[in-house]
Every structure is written in C-alpha cells, then in structure tokens.
Amino acid sequence: MRLRKVPGSREKAAASPLVFAEDRATAQQGKWAELFGRTAPLVLEVGMGRGRFLATVAEVQPENNYLGLELREEMVVEALEKAEPLNLPNLRYLWLNAELLPEIFAVGEVDRIYVHFPDPWPKSRHAKRRLTAPAFLKRYSQILSAKGELIFKTDDEPLFRYSQQTFREEGWRVQEEYDDLPLEKSGVITEYEGRWRRHGKPIFFLRALPPLAAEGAAEAEATEQ
Ligand SMILES: C[S@@+](CC[C@H](N)C(=O)[O-])C[C@H]1O[C@@H](n2cnc3c(N)ncnc32)[C@H](O)[C@@H]1O
C-alpha cells in the first residue's frame, strides 16, 4: 500500500476512544466482550488498511463484535473517518503490530480472523514479515477459539502457494481453497479485492481451522479408531 505521511494522524488516532494502541489494548486482554458490553463472536481483521470491509460487515452483520488491526496510523485514521459517522457499537480498532496479538487476546478469545490481501514481501529475507509466516500462524492459533477459523485472500500467487504450505506445515486444517474465487462466493469485498477484480486478476482464497489442541487431537484419533 502506498505510504503517504499525513501530518496529525498520530494525534488523531491516539485521541480517539475507538482506537486501542498497545497499552490500552493489552489492558483489555481477556475482556473484549466487556468492552463491547455483550458476549458475541469476536471477529478480527489483521492488516485492515483503510477499513472499508469492516465498516460494511459491522453494519450488515451486527451480531458480531469487530476489531480491525492496523500498524499504520494513516490507515487507522482513514478507517476512523469511515466509522465515526456510522456510530457502530460493535466496531473498534487496534493500532499496533500483529506480532503483539498474544498479548492483546486471551487464549481462545477470538472466533474468526480475516487476513485480506497482506503485503506479499516477495524477497526471502523478508519472509518473516508475511502475515502467513509460521510465527504469525502460531500467534493466530493461540488466540483463536476451538471452533474458530481463519479466512485468507490474496491476489498474489507466490504468496498463496507459500501460505498453502505454511498452513499445512503448521497443522491447520484447510477446509476450502480457490485459485479463482467467484465473486458471488466472496461476500463483502475489501478495497484491495475491488481493485484487483477491476484489473481482472484472480483472487486466491483459503479457509482453515486452527491445529487441534493435544486433547482435541487425541479425541479425534479415538473417534476415528
Ligand atoms: C495491502 S494492505 C491490504 C488492506 C486491506 N486488508 C484490503 O484488503 O484492502 C495490507 C495492510 O496490512 C498492514 N500490515 C502489514 N503488516 C502488518 C503488521 N505486522 N501488523 C499490522 N498491520 C500490518 C499494512 O500497513 C497495510 O495497511
């Protein structure tokens, strides 16, 4: 995503009650339902960019609580500008690095994670920054509930092939995969998905369940015997 420094973005993000930077977010660990004032499925988008997807789903699927995570303050501010007029009680933002996820959520606190069109980081020396690198998948599996799931979309085929491998190597149970996801199966689309579809690019898609915890794996094995 093009980087343009916008003066005043840090101050605006820091001043908003809708935005949780590292200190406020870690203080909320295990207590996100309290913040939203209700127990409801907790849905997280990692690397939300300008937040178009979340502003839409939070409105059309009010039964869930939503958190959008983003590193760059300019993006957080653009997401805020979309959300503020909507005044949605079920949408908040995390302004921090996804590396911190295990400090932000208790084990099993999140029900669904979206990773939409993350930066591909094609050079192997940057592979650790990919949001589907093994270290990130471990963080996601720690915070996802036993019935949780992760949805990943990209326009970048090399990143998709790499990710298919990392999900499997990390023990995730892949439920659905598409090399060219039909629009009618896509649901609400993100800013990037809209852009790549307009350019006629195929959209790669994967939905996976986290690795079974030791006791779950033993149970599954016993049922199979
Ligand atoms: C290419 S954009 C995609 C935006 C949006 N998901 C979409 O589909 O339109 C990827 C976003 O991920 C953010 N990002 C990359 N690495 C991150 C990290 N480690 N933690 C939080 N956000 C990150 C970037 O700042 C960027 O805004």
Number of domains: 1
- End-to-end span in angstroms? 50 Å
Oligomer, anyone? single chain
Named CATH topology: Rossmann fold
Q: Regions with pLDDT < 50 over 5+ consecutive residues?
A: none
Bound molecules: S-adenosylmethionine
Mean pLDDT: 94
Largest sheet, spatial ordering of strands: 1-4-3-2-5-6-8-7
Q: Note the total helix count.
A: 10
**What is the H/E order?**
HEHHEHEHEHEHEHEHEH
Strand content: 15-25%
In CATH, what is the class? Alpha Beta
Biggest sheet, in brief? 8 strands, mixed
Which descriptor suits the 3D outline? Answer: globular
Gyration radius (Cα, Å) is: 17 Å
What does this molecule look like?
There is one protein chain. The protein is α/β, with parallel strands linked by helices. The chain has a single domain (40-224), classed as Rossmann fold, CATH 3.40.50. Helices cover 37% and strands 22% of the residues. The protein contains 10 helices and 8 strands. Strand 5, helix 7 and strand 6 form a beta-alpha-beta unit. Helix 1 (9-15) crosses helix 5. The longest helix has 13 residues, at 157-169. The mean pLDDT is 94. Bound molecules: S-adenosylmethionine. S-adenosylmethionine is lined by residues 1, 47-49, 69-72, 75, 97-98, 116-119, 131, 190-193. S-adenosylmethionine binds at residues 1, 47-49, 69-72, 75, 97-98, 116-119, 131, 190-193.
